[in-house]
Structures are given as structure tokens and as C-alpha cells.
Amino acid sequence: MTSSPEPTAPAHAVSDPSHTLAPTPPATAAFASPHALSPAALLRSALDRVRNARPELADRLDLSSAQALRALRAGFHTADAADTEVLAVAVVGRLDLPSWVRETCAFALTLAPEARDAWRSSFTRTVFLAGSPANLRERFTFEHVAGDGSVAWCGPAPGAATVTLRRLLKTFEAGHDLTAKPAATVTVPRTVTASGAGWSRPAVHRDLYIATAGVTVAHALVHLHHLLAEAVLDGLIHPCDRLTLRFMPRLTGLAGRFAMLRVDTDVHRPDELQAYAGLSTEV
Fold first, then answer.
1. Which InterPro entries does the UniProt entry name for this protein (predicted)?
2. Which of 123, 143, 162, 185 has the fewest CB atoms within 10 Å around its CB?
């Protein structure tokens, strides 16, 4: 399974699938209920993502509709970019979603500024593979391995750097629907890389809303990974922050305010957008 490098695109299950260390959060308005998730607000959120990652594209392309965003997506699927586009690879052995959320943040926090910038410009593209990190550590170098060995990340790097690993392992496939679970709170770890003064603001608590209706586990991982990684890279998530996972059929109509949304094409209505995950303002 690969996450989409483009700003709005469904995450397909396929086998091959400027920031400082503590960047300033982007100047985007919070999304206020009850009209927070109107079509116009969803489109604005998707456009903000393009502008934050690739402002040169936002300046010269038509980004006025979901259809225009899909056309932009097509531009990233060129043969010339296949081995040079920056991507991360996640090897998943076991999946416990709260633990996975915590470790995803930890991985993003380990990245050096140059890697963060390059990955952000590639819309935090990530390939998810099924395998045992413990069985691979002698052959491959991982930038981050979960403490329990359940998942590991390498990259982000040009695709050519991970082609051997991606050919060796199969796609991580979890095609069953994500089910609602009780709320769970995790604490973002303090990594060695994220231990300087730039990450020293007081810890905050945010809600992490996850849509479940018609969303498979595989697609949920893609959406959450984009949201969490970009929230770290944009300075919304810091070490020691607390995140409470809250599962909802849909995010439409939620009371509260969102600091960041994961917006993508609605898999059932390809000309419309849907919010698949949302990170709240401080609670």
C-alpha cells in the first residue's frame, strides 16, 4: 500500500507503491463547527496543503475544484519521477493503532531538516509493506524502529534507495473496514533528535478524529500517516504532546475546531472531497 504523493487522491493498495527543526505552524485558519466541513472548507484545506508543500505549484496551477486537484495528482505519476521522488517506507509487522500513532509521530520527529523539507515537498508519500522489522534489520537500515518492534521506517529518500526492500516485501493489506474503538490517549515521545530547545514549548493536548464509515484499515493508515507526519513537520505536534484518538463514522458536523484536516477524494463520489481525519486545536 502506498500513500498518495498528490494533494488529493484515493489511497490505492499497490505493491510499489521549509522547515527548521521546530518549524512555525502554517498560518491557516481553524475550521469552526457547525459549518467547518462544508465543501468550500474541505477544498480550502486541500489547497492549503498544496501551498504549504509546493507553493510554486499553487501559484501556477488551477486549484479551484476537486477536479483540478485530481488533474494535479496525475502530474505526479510520471515515469521520470518514479525513482527520484522522495518517499518513506513503513514495514508493518503488527498493528495496534494507538501505538502506531505514537510511533508515526516519533519517526517524523527523528528527521533532519533536509529530509523533512524534501519529504514535505513530496506530500509525505509513504509506502506500507508487510514484514518483520526484526528479520530485516541486518539487511536494511531503518531510521526509526518502534520499541516493541511492530513497525519500522526507512527514508524518506529517493525511490531508488528503497527499491530492493519494496521488491522483497508485499504490500501491507488490510482491506476490512475500520471499526469504531474506545477513545485512547497516547503521548508523543521525545526522540533524541527532538530534544533541543526548539521543541521546548509546553506540551498540549489535542483530539485526533478518525472517520470510519466506509474506510478500510489500510486507507485509514494512509490518511493518518499523512496527517500526523505533516502536523509534526509543520510544528503542530511536538514531543510530549498528548493525542486522544476518537473514532467517528464521519467528521461532518463535529462540534469543535480543527487545526489540521486530512482531506482526500471521496472514494464513493470522486468529484467530491471528504475529511478522513482531523487534528483539533488545543483542548
1. DUF6182
2. 185
In the predicted structure, residue 26 carries a pLDDT above the cut 70 = no
Domain count, the chain: 1
C-beta of residue 193 within 8 angstroms of C-beta of residue 112: yes
**6 in a domain, yes or no?**
no
Enter the C-alpha cell of residue 20.
527548521
User: 10-19, 107-116, 141-150, 165-174: which has the minimum mean pLDDT?
Assistant: 10-19
Question: Percent helix, strand, coil in the chain (nearest 5)?
Answer: 30, 25, 45
Is 90 exceeded by the pLDDT of residue 135? yes
Q: Cα–Cα distances in Å, from 37 out to 123, 142, 143, 163, 240?
A: 22, 38, 36, 39, 29
| Residue 239 within a domain | yes
Residue 193 lies in a domain: yes
> Long-range CB contacts (< 8 A, 24+ apart) of 111-117?
111/143, 111/156, 111/193, 111/233, 112/193, 113/19, 113/20, 113/21, 115/155, 115/156, 115/157, 116/19, 116/23, 116/233, 117/18, 117/19
What is the pLDDT confidence band of residue 194, given thresholds at 50, 70 and 90? low
Range name among 44-58, 59-73, 211-225, 245-259 with the lowest pLDDT average: 59-73
Which of 208, 280, 205 lies closest to 247 in space, CA to CA? 208
Joined grid coordinates for residue 249 = 463514522
* Domain extent for 68: 32-280
- pTM of the full predicted structure? 0.82
